Amino acid sequence: MKEALKTTVKKIYRQPEEYYDKEVSLSGWIRNNRNSKVFGFIELNDGSFFKSIQVVYEEEKLENFKEIVKLGVGSAIYVDGILTETPGMKQPFEIKAKNIRIEGHCPSDYPLQKKRHSFEFLRTIAHLRPRTNTFSAVFRVRSLLSYAIHKFFQERDFVYVHTPIITGSDAEGAGEMFHVTTLDFRNIPLTEDGEVDFTKDFFGRETNLTVSGQLSAEAYALAFRKVYTFGPTFRSENSNTPRHAAEFWMIEPEVAFADLNDNMELAEDMIKYIFDYVIRHAPEEMEFFNNFIDKGLLERLNNVIQSEFGRISYTDAVEILKKHNDNFQYKVEWGTDLQTEHERFLTEKVFKKPVFVINYPKDIKAFYMRLNDDGKTVAAMDLLVPGIGEIIGGSQREERLELLDARIKELNMKEEDYWWYRDLRKYGGTYHSGFGLGFERAIMYITGMTNIRDVIPFPRTPKSAEF
RNA sequence: UCCUCAGUAGCUCAAUGGCAGAGCACUCGGCUGUUAACCGAGGGGUUACUGGUUCGAGUCCAGUCUGGGGAGCCA
Asked: How does pLDDT run across A292-347, given as a tens digit for each residue?
């Protein structure tokens, strides 16, 4: 049968009237099997949908009734039967089985049970956890959110750019990097100075996994005007928190002829669009999260979608926070970076909605951010959201070559390492802006999941790459 | 990396320094409409690891490993 014509649990739930009193054929995995002497019930999940469908089977209709009764959770089966309405029951409809065929047995040492498991335990069986309700919902939403992001940018004529995963630059300035090499660790070639001789390495120079596609994206923004990247990113920092992973995905739009205000408008539109898209296209999953993961989830998301995001300068934010210094473990003063506790206070207590903090002191921000006229701050923006804190960081980029060079010099960076980045300013440069959105952080925010390890199929964190 | 909490049956958790326990899962049996079904019985343990204190350690002490939470770094 053609794949598109196959009956799935999702199709049945979406248009049950098409199937009532007709014979349907399904295949899937048993989530639950309970029975008495001459009949029983199977919860069948076929992978197409978050919800399962109930299959009723009777001794007098199945010649292999005795075997079906013994099937445990996780077994793979084929089912043929009639879809029947079940008014007044907990489930809207069920399949009265005519025939059940066993495809794959699932022995009794199967680690998943009908009862709730801790997320910590499920992380140790990352290959099996997608078969649970929570992870079924998380990874359907991950897929949908990914699609929504592409849809948002494509509808606005952005060009999707695949920036390199292996980079030749060791100076992107966004964190510790993983080395990429084919050198033999037991016999590393050295130069006369005793340093590693990377001219003997695969690329003839030192290479790393990317920590950001931004610099490459800028090059394409200055040709295509509106571009975005969406790809894997790697940081070898020894971060042991529920919000950090060594391998994660990042979205980085970059727009030429766009200033910081344009940048914020884009970020606000994007957040609202992708949240709204997921809520409308994954109603069952979102209801599950709202009921079992985070009771205030939908209310908070709807608040984000409907509110106009706040905007405040770093300097004004510091003034407000200083009045509440008693509440903070770390006291606020102008010139220091905002701590998570300060960010959350601003968005949760002061604004009670998402807020952009802009124009940070230049000394706590990256070299490529555009210097403001006051000479002290740069055109940076962080988007803070209730419940998490920072979810987006971005800026208008320094397009004035002499100011960029001065900054590179100030930070003791090497001008020649940035020769092509500087060319972008030299040849037809223009003001431009962009930001970075941590994809997993967005998933966490939209699902209510509180650990990044539970929104990545096989997460990589310090001392952990089992699967 | 720092601070902090934890590690007991397949899972989730009890056990005052004094006999190693429960629920679920699993196996067997019962049950004619179940909804994480229900009822009865049974099997299941190097208490993370190494060492120490003690007549006696799951429990106290030291170290190691692993995991959770907080912080830093950041997305």
From this structure: 999 889 999 999 999 999 999 999 999 999 988 888 888 888 988 898 889 988 98
Instruction: Yes or no: say if A359 and A313 are a contact pair by the CB < 8 Å rule.
Output: yes
pLDDT at A293: 92
Q: How far apart are CA A73 and CA A317, in angstroms?
A: 54
Q: What is the ipTM of this complex?
A: 0.90
In 3D space, the residue among A273, A231, A269 whose CA is nearest the CA of residue A250 turns out to be A231
Bases in strand B with any atom closer than 7 Å to a protein CB: 1-2, 10-13, 23-28, 30-38, 66-75
Structure confidence at residue A171 (pLDDT): 54
What is the spatial distance, in angstroms and rounded to an integer, between the CA atom of A454 and the C1' atom of B40? 40
Q: Which residues pair with A355 in a beta bridge?
A: A310, A384
Which nucleotide is closest to the Cα of A42 by its C1'?
B34
Q: Which residue is nearest to nucleotide B72 (CA to C1')?
A: A239
Q: Which nucleotide is nearest to A110 (CA to C1')?
A: B10
- Stretch A233-237: mean pLDDT, rounded? 92
